[in-house]
Amino acid sequence: MSGWIGVDLDGTLAQYGGWKGADHIGEPVPAMAFRVRNWLAQGREVRIFTARASEPEQVPVVTEWCKRHFGVELAVTNVKDFGMVELWDDRAVRVRENEGEPCCSHAR
Question: Pairing with 83, which of 5, 43, 66, 74 sits 20 to 30 Å away (CA)?
Answer without folding.
Answer: 66
